[in-house]
Amino acid sequence: MDTSVSNEDFLATVAEKSNGAALRGDYAHMDAHYVVQQDWAAYTEAEHDLWRKLYQRQMALLPGRACDEFIEALAKMDISAGIPVFEKTSKELFAATGWTIVAVPGLIPELTFFDHLANRRFPVTVWLRKPEEFNYIVEPDVFHDFFGHVPLLFNPVFADYMQRYGQGGLKAMRLGGLDELARLYWYTVEFGLINTPAGIRIYGAGILSSGGEVEYCLTPGTKSRHIRLDIERCLRTLYKIDSYQETYFVIDSYQQLFDGTAPDFTPIYQKLKSMDVLPANTLLADEIELLPAL
Ligand code: PHE
Ligand code: CO
């Protein structure tokens, strides 16, 4: 998303992308923050059934692969029966970490997105993918946003990191560091892995909601790199949007994310301007691959 565009231009882009077909999101009934009503009663039984199938497919894959924080929070959320009522989980989440869930029509402008995060509100898309998108969907839907992202927001440290990321986004917009900062979101919040005593586990929502990448990302000997997260290195690294990731950054703890993003990034953005970006799948001389071929 380009953040320099006006709301009108943003909506025009969304309409264009929809290729003339009906808009998936209803951008006509939102407030100034792109927040809409979920209108839970409007979901069809076929949609609830598709949710259950998506849920069951992921649950068969996640034990021993997803991090404990995700598995435990998900179990408590109790969202296996159908598309969840946002309000219910939102109340539970607020009690746990002070975050709330807000319903949005789909993609929203970056400024709006950062503003939500900075205020501990997580935007969740209201619509569900179509059955033919069971294995792959190009834009986030309610299954990705809710199933993938919400459970980790019950973890206090990760929840604090997400708020700080929103604040950092607002600052990066002023400093011209958006491309760099977006890479950090991608490689942590969406595709992050974490080291645990039991082995490497998944915490990134983009993997957790994906049918194929859950297994792929933990398979030794693929062409993808698994390397320890270094924030500056991550900010320089390009990512793949239409295939499995070629680089996974592995953290040791959520505290590492929180502490690593505490410093002022102004000098980092400055420094990176004069450095080349790194293609995904780069391995630097001093880096160790954490999942090499067996
Ligand atoms: N601390 C960073 C800054 O001063 C902002 C930031 C927060 C970046 C969280 C990433 C994640 O710019
Ligand atoms: Co996401």
From TrEMBL:
InterPro entries: ArAA_hydroxylase (IPR001273), ArAA_hydroxylase_Fe/CU_BS (IPR018301), ArAA_hydroxylase_sf (IPR036951), Aro-AA_hydroxylase_C_sf (IPR036329), Aromatic-AA_hydroxylase_C (IPR019774), Phe-4-hydroxylase_mono (IPR005960). PROSITE patterns: BH4_AAA_HYDROXYL_1, BH4_AAA_HYDROXYL_2. Its EC number is 1.14.16.1. Pathway: Amino-acid degradation; L-phenylalanine degradation; acetoacetate and fumarate from L-phenylalanine: step 1/6. Keywords: Iron, Metal-binding, Monooxygenase, Oxidoreductase, Phenylalanine catabolism. It catalyses: (6R)-L-erythro-5,6,7,8-tetrahydrobiopterin + L-phenylalanine + O2 = (4aS,6R)-4a-hydroxy-L-erythro-5,6,7,8-tetrahydrobiopterin + L-tyrosine. Its cofactor is Fe(2+). It comes from the Bacteria. Signal peptide: none annotated. Residues 1-294 form the Biopterin-dependent aromatic amino acid hydroxylase family profile domain. Pfam families: Biopterin_H (PF00351). NCBIfam families: Phe4hydrox_mono, PRK11913.1-2. Belongs to the biopterin-dependent aromatic amino acid hydroxylase family. This is Phenylalanine-4-hydroxylase. The lineage of its organism: Bacteria, Pseudomonadati, Pseudomonadota, Betaproteobacteria, Burkholderiales.
